[in-house]
Amino acid sequence: MTKVGYFYTDCLVPMVGNNPYATAEENSAELSINAEVYSLPSRKLVVLQIRSPFIKSKYRPFSQALLSWVQTSKCARVILLSSSHAYQRDDEQLFGTPLRYLLTPALEKSMEGLMQGLKWKEMEKVAAYPGINDTEKVLHIPGGGITKLLFTECCSKEIQMAVLLKFCSEGDNIPDAFALVNYLNEWLQLIKSESSNSTATSSQWKIPSSWRLLFGSGLPPALF
Description:
With 224 residues, the chain is α+β, with helices and mostly antiparallel strands. It has helices at residues 25-28, 59-72, 105-111, 114-117, 147-157, 174-188; strands at residues 2-6, 16-18, 31-33, 35-40, 45-50, 78-85, 99-103, 126-129, 133-138, 161-168.
């Protein structure tokens, strides 16, 4: 995808770095910041990538700015890729696939059972007061950052939005990234899938060059 711009905001921790998608020395020095926009016109697809954490108390202003941009840009629908802490699942969420989805009512109307056809599992609501009152259920996405706020705002504004998320643990999240993008691909068919299994890694995805430095550049030989 081609980088087409930036999402300028004071709601994210400031960050600047080299091009994470460098393919040669010539483009490795291009600067990247905390929120960038990429485009794929042939698929009518625009991606906003966020690379740094939210500043405390800035969730709502960011949500308002983002959804205002979505509406003025006349985006047909929004898909949010997210995650939730694996260690905070309830008993029901421990079984089956670690992948979940949510649809706003506006999008649910137009999907006409597509998710059931894909045999996807909707994100379960959990007891608001476990052990005290198990009948009152609420949406709970621990570790999901701005996910729940964006989803509820899209519901109230009647914006077509889907949330695709995976229960994740701390550590090497590269397999989680592959699982989530394969999950998205089951629906959007961005590339021809080699496997119907969302947890399988696909050699057809291009791996960012920056992932080689995910755990640092190795131990200096001078240590030995």
